[in-house]
Amino acid sequence: MNGTLRRSLQRTKRAGWHLVLRCKATSATTADLAHTAAIAVGANLGDRVSNIVEALKLLPAHGIEVVRQSRLYESAPAYVTDQPRFLNAAVAVRTSLQPRQLLRALKQIEADLGRKAGGLRWGPRPLDLDIIFYDNITSEEEGLAIPHPRWHERSFVQAPVADLYAASELGSSSAAGRMAGHLEQLHARWAQMGGERSLGSTDLGCVLPLPGIGMWPWQGRSQIMGILNVTPDSFSDGGQLPSVEAAVSTAQEMVACGADMLDIGGQSTRPGAEKLPPEVELQRVLPVIRALSQDEALQGVPLSIDTFYAEVAREAVAAGAHIVNDVSGGSLDPAMHQEVAHLGVPYVLMHMRGDPGTMSSREHTTYADVCMDVGDALQASAEAATYAGIEPWRLILDPGIGFAKTAEGNCQLIGGLDRVRAQLKGPFHNAPLLVGPSRKGFLGKITGHKEAKDRDKASAAAAALCVAHGAHIVRVHNVEAVRDAVRVADAIAASLGKPYSM
């Protein structure tokens, strides 16, 4: 991270870390933007994601600064049920506009993006922008009631607005400003409605937009990411896929065994690995990604490119990848965050100190409290990613098991995923969590199995524990060996009424 960006992030963090959208800045200073508001955003016609993104880009031109965004939700239509499903989000904003002026600005943005005046109430629309809260105001005027009169009955409003500030952030000095009191009421109501436990159904759930596939629901059950290494030197399975045909065949077997997505890597990131240039990585992964994306049996299966190079990410997405999985979280290539923002794909942001060649040093594996330190680092990296233009709803967070951690630290992280999450703020507090303990060296130390391929039983146990402690996605080598353990962990969590997002 360069010095200018670091200083900018420090300033935004002191102010409660606000998201800076990449669009033309307004002339108003932060001091002028004295009012805070929560705005609900919805769309069910046209390119729903694009409509929401474009609406948020237009806000600053009207004197409305976006400071936080929620996760992205898909919901069944309410009131008028014979219409397409909705995408829903929310933003926290600062503005100098009075409530009536703010309403006029939102209606203008709706019109600019194709919403026509009149029409069926609660019917289909390309864009819907509603003021939910404005400071601590409670008022009712003709055509404008604050708080929004129906927020109590709309889970598709409560869920994204609750994302903006975790309940632990609220209070007299909250970054939420004068609407903190309203948000405390909303959090209480959302918890009463079931909160995170209620998500993942066809009525309402979080989604990741995947180009070429559509909305991918990641709640309801844990997801399994199958590892497809096309490298000669990976610590576990290097050299086992000597051809594109072998890679496709293995991918088909993984999906048949229960893999929900596939992660393709062309460079080993084992401890001590030498960093290869992007052109070598591209030679390995592009033919495989193209073949996988064209294979009939794999249509609809998300493909992830495992790389820390922005160039590789760009070319892999062009070849058919849907997700970028970066073990460095953007620290090894300063262009990565902006590239992913431009690509518009989900981004797995992992915690690592140093690089694969140095990460096992005492300097990098020493923590004051590994769970708190990793959580703080993930928060900072997620803020940097959103600063670069990656929407929070595209982020998947990974604590980096095996990367700059001791065996004891890895165990503490798996058992303390809830403590990692407790350090995360705003939409990151309940972001999808990916954990990859599969065949890692710490499992060998625990079981005595020196060969990575002999650690599949241990990997299944570790994966089940990750799910039990709040992981949404587990990254594994042997899908068949892990699948049943994950399903049992899911069933036990469901029987206890635990949410899939802890």
Provide a short characterization of the protein structure:
This protein is α/β, with parallel strands linked by helices and 502 residues long.
Written account of the structure:
The chain folds into two domains: 20-198, Alpha-Beta Plaits (2-Layer Sandwich); 221-495, Dihydropteroate synthase-like (TIM Barrel, Alpha-Beta Barrel), CATH 3.20.20. Helix content is 36%, strand content 17%. The protein has helices at 3-14, 48-58, 99-112, 155-164, 180-192, 244-257, 278-294, 310-319, 336-343, 362-365, 370-387, 407-415, 417-422, 441-447, 456-468, 479-495; strands at 35-43, 64-69, 73-75, 86-95, 128-134, 139-141, 144-146, 204-210, 214-217, 223-229, 261-265, 303-306, 323-326, 347-350, 395-398, 434-435, 473-476. The strands form three sheets. The protein has an eight-stranded parallel β-sheet with strand order 15-14-13-12-11-10-17-16. Strands 1, 2, 3, 4, 5, 8 and 9 form a seven-stranded antiparallel β-sheet that branches. A hairpin with a 3-residue loop joins strand 8 and strand 9 (214-217). Helix 12 packs across helix 14 (441-447). The model is unreliable at 1-27 and 234-239 (pLDDT under 50).
